[in-house]
Amino acid sequence: VGNSSVLTCSPKSNITMVTWKISPEVGGLCILGYRANENKTERINCSDSMDWKFRPDQDLALEIRQVGITHEGNYTCEVVAPEGNFHKTYHLTVLVSPRLILSCDDHGNPVCKAATGKPAAQVSWVLESNSTPKEEGHVNGTVTVLSKFTAHSTNMINTTCIVSHPTGNQSKSIAC
């Protein structure tokens, strides 16, 4: 989320036409087209965040600026050339890094929250805990995972929560 993504399309010599067909999982079809004989581009139902990386007569790549969850879906580039028609399809999956929040509950137990990540994060503790993480799904497709540390002994001074996620791992320690 928030980064730019560039999807390339195989360059062929003497292209006649190039079409990017974007089918997001949410929302309607977007089409970016280019006709070489007229050196003309066309946009149908596309947001401003999606456009050619450069001029399509020089580069057929599509750039998505400020990628968001709504950009998830299929992206197909179709090239028409004298040698034939060529297709390349991408499936874009957007990852959202969770926020690690570590606190103490009213009973002095550490509580670790991996807030609004996509996909759901894995939450674990440095020392063994018989905690069962609870997941809460959100409308935008993100998931919050909550884990409460339950110690076998009460001699704990410092407890560390580890959040594992495809966007990177995080850890924090707390003394409750």
TrEMBL record:
Kindly list the organism's lineage: Eukaryota, Metazoa, Chordata, Craniata, Vertebrata
Any single Gene Ontology cellular-component annotation: external side of plasma membrane
Q: Which Gene3D superfamilies match?
A: Immunoglobulins (2.60.40.10)
List keywords of the entry alphabetically.
Disulfide bond, Glycoprotein, Membrane, Receptor, Transmembrane, Transmembrane helix
Q: What membrane topology term does the record carry? A: Single-pass membrane protein
Gene Ontology terms, MF aspect: signaling receptor activity
Q: Does the keyword Disulfide bond apply?
A: yes
Write the protein's name. Answer: MOR1B protein
Family per UniProt?
Answer: Belongs to the CD200R family.
Localisation: Membrane
The record, for InterPro entries, names: CD200R (IPR040012), CD80_C2-set (IPR013162), Ig-like_dom (IPR007110), Ig-like_dom_sf (IPR036179), Ig-like_fold (IPR013783), Ig_V-set (IPR013106)
